[in-house]
Design a protein that fits this description.
The strands form four sheets. Strands 1, 2, 3, 4, 5, 6, 7, 8, 9 and 10 form a ten-stranded mixed beta sheet that branches. By secondary structure, the protein is α+β, with helices and mostly antiparallel strands. The protein folds into three domains: 2-230, Alpha-Beta Plaits, CATH 3.30.70; 242-306 and 348-361, OB fold (Dihydrolipoamide Acetyltransferase, E2P); 308-346, no CATH class. The protein has seven helices and 21 strands. Bound molecules: zinc ion.
């Protein structure tokens, strides 16, 4: 059986990961590896971080009665709390928890629908609650094949992680996004009132566990921890890489750049914005991004060709100059003439390879293109 949970975030302590952790602790049966799935970042009523959770249960349908009671006592009360956000400019929706239970894993298509666009409810199984059933079911439907892991610990009181432990964990083979390389700031502790002490990411479950234990030793008191299999850094939200030629470039107040009237490079997108500013008409690019309200929000961009026409360079190394209309070019030094008035030469982009947002601005789902 597959159990899913979503949308229990709230201002006063509700956090879907913690609610799920407590549910797992209370379960009267065995269960598999807990899973955390991030879904489409633009979902209309998404909660903070847009994380949904699921787990395989090793039990029979008698669990339904137990879940009924647990739902009423511990989860249904979380409805209607306004969640807080990392992005304060976003309209916030009250949480609307949902829980789903399926005897067999739902078709994987439900996961893809929910990670790449606005999904809706699916039929079947046993379902509790409201809006959160969409994400809960999508998480159950995830295959888990392309995965990373995150160790999450919850705090008892204050949020404090030692710099020393963070340094140890950052140096471990297999952890990622522990620190922002630009300013050395830690990236594992959230801000705001949420009950998470830290979340540490790794490419294997073993490393996530090792890192979690190290961080717990060096932090203020925690109430528990869990290692989740996740779809973070999978790139699953991106359908494909697009190719295009730059036709127009518009730079808005605040430094945002719009290419070809619909490809958007936000000013805070670091290298992406830097590269977009540098581009010129005729350049060939490849890009990835999410479409929202008719605009592509860039998450990666790469120059595949950029050339300019220049006067040829003479054998002596001096650039030739035009002798006037229809007259060819001539070296100003040794006076050698040439009829090739223009040559194409490559412009060298300020970022070679894929430009991506700075690590603290990247989506949980974003895959490293390097
Ligand atoms: Zn010359």
């Amino acid at each position: 059986m597959w159990l899913g949970l979503d949308d229990t975030d709230s201002l006063d302590g509700g956090c879907t990961t913690l609610v799920f952790h407590q549910l797992l602790d209370a379960l009267p049966c065995d269960y598999g590896e807990p899973r955390l799935t991030r879904l489409w970042p633009f979902a209309a009523q998404r909660t903070r971080g847009n994380a949904s959770l699921s787990v395989e249960l090793f039990c029979d349908e008698s669990i339904i009665k137990w879940l009924d009671e647990y739902w009423i006592k511990h989860i249904s009360l979380l409805k209607g709390e306004i969640s807080h956000s990392e992005h304060s400019d976003r309209k916030q929706y009250p949480s609307d928890p949902g829980m789903t239970l399926f005897v067999t894993k739902p078709d994987e298509i439900h996961y893809w629908n929910a990670v790449r666009g606005e999904a809706t409810f699916i039929e079947g199984g046993h379902q509790w609650g409201g809006q959160g059933r969409i994400g809960a079911a999508a998480s159950c439907a995830w295959s888990g094949d392309v995965a990373t892991w995150e160790g999450i610990a919850w705090r008892k009181g204050e949020r404090r992680v030692s710099e020393e432990s963070l340094t140890t964990v950052d140096a471990m083979e297999g952890t990622f996004l522990c620190r922002d390389p630009r300013n050395n700031r830690g990236l594992i502790a959230p801000r705001g009132p949420c009950p998470v002490m830290f979340g540490v990411r790794a490419t294997s479950s073993d490393v996530a566990l090792m890192a979690t234990k190290e961080l717990i030793n060096g932090s203020a008191e925690t109430t528990g921890y869990r290692i989740f299999r996740t779809n973070q850094a999978s790139g699953d939200h991106i359908q494909s890489i697009h190719k295009t030629t730059v036709g127009t470039k518009e730079i808005l107040n605040g430094g945002h750049v719009i290419l070809n009237n619909n490809i958007l490079a936000f000013s805070e997108s670091g290298d992406i914005n830097k590269l977009a500013q540098w581009l010129t008409e005729g350049d060939s690019i490849e890009y990835i991004g999410l479409e929202f309200e008719g605009k592509i929000h860039l998450e990666g961009i790469r120059v595949t060709q950029s050339q300019i026409l220049e006067r040829p360079v003479c054998e002596c190394g001096t650039r030739m100059k035009s002798m006037g209309k229809g007259q060819g070019v001539r070296c100003p030094k040794c006076k050698i003439k040439s009829l090739d008035k223009w040559v194409e030469s490559d412009r060298i982009p300020p970022i070679s390879g894929w430009a991506q947002p700075p690590v603290d601005k990247r989506r949980h789902l974003a895959k490293s293109m390097a």
